[in-house]
Amino acid sequence: MTNYPVNMDVRPDVSAHFDPATNTISYIVKDPDSTHCAVIDSVMDIDYAAGRITQGHADALIEEIRSRGLTLDWIIETHVHADHLSAAPYIQEQLGGKIGIGADIVTVQETFGKVFNEGTEFQRDGSQFDRLFRDGDTYEVGGMACLAMHTPGHTPACMTHVMGDAAFVGDTLFMPDGGSARADFPGGDAGVLYDSIQKVLALPDAMRLFMCHDYGPNGRDIAWETTVGEEKANNIHVGGGTTREAFVKMRTERDKTLDVPKLILPSLQVNMRAGELPRDPDGHPVLKVPVNGI
Ligand SMILES: [Fe+2]
């Protein structure tokens, strides 16, 4: 049983947008009793080899919000993603809304501010975001009460956002046959991730869970929605009462075999700035490649 205040009687409308380039799922979540909505984990397109940024994925979200006549209240980042770039500022410019992330973004900014040798103009206080969520914080989408749960382990700033009977878990969990996300990035911790997953699994069994990523393991079609009950019973990494010790051993061994995400360098530089591109002294957008930096 969870100690967080949840209301399973509120059933938001959830529209999913899958990005095949990064296997990310972005969501438009609509309050069932008004025309207000939130966007969760948007994606900005990048051709990294060419240094070219485009906004096809975000434009599709914007187009859907406009055509349905919705008002955008929030643009939520579940965490600082290392595998895709956020389009939050681009969406905010066109539709408004507040950009929010976990308060421990400051830890991530401190770590990667050093890695990318950022100057003093790069603030490490989270001020690039409109709202920094702490565990148990509440906010509203229209009249729908929403809740931020701190679920660190994959990164220090990871949050799970609960809106009615739907929870957006970021990279805390994958689909039952996908298991869990890696915990070997700076600030990651497999034991802490296990504890966070237990917080999610303590939510009601019927709670709908929405993933940030899916890779279609074993050739199955891409999927992004499951339930707490399903994960508890069948998740290949934590289902069926796996112990903390067994999870940490599995996760640590598995993480050693994983490649560095292709877009980690541009993703971190952009996402730790709430989706803004870094700029050179002349004001031109530019991305760094620190050699042997991570
Ligand atoms: Fe992630």
Automatic annotation (TrEMBL):
Give one GO biological process term. glutathione metabolic process
For this protein, the record's CDD domains field holds: POD-like_MBL-fold (cd07724)
Recorded hits in SMART domains, A to Z, give: Lactamase_B
Kindly state which keywords UniProt assigns to this record, in alphabetical order: Metal-binding
Give the domain of life: Bacteria
Keyword set includes Metal-binding: yes
Q: Where is the Metallo-beta-lactamase domain?
A: 23-213
| The keyword ATP-binding belongs to this UniProt entry's keyword annotation | no
* GO molecular function, a single term: metal ion binding
PANTHER family xref list: PERSULFIDE DIOXYGENASE ETHE1 (PTHR43084), PERSULFIDE DIOXYGENASE ETHE1, MITOCHONDRIAL (PTHR43084:SF1)
Q: What is this protein called?
A: Glyoxylase, beta-lactamase superfamily II
Where does this protein come from, organism-wise?
Jannaschia faecimaris
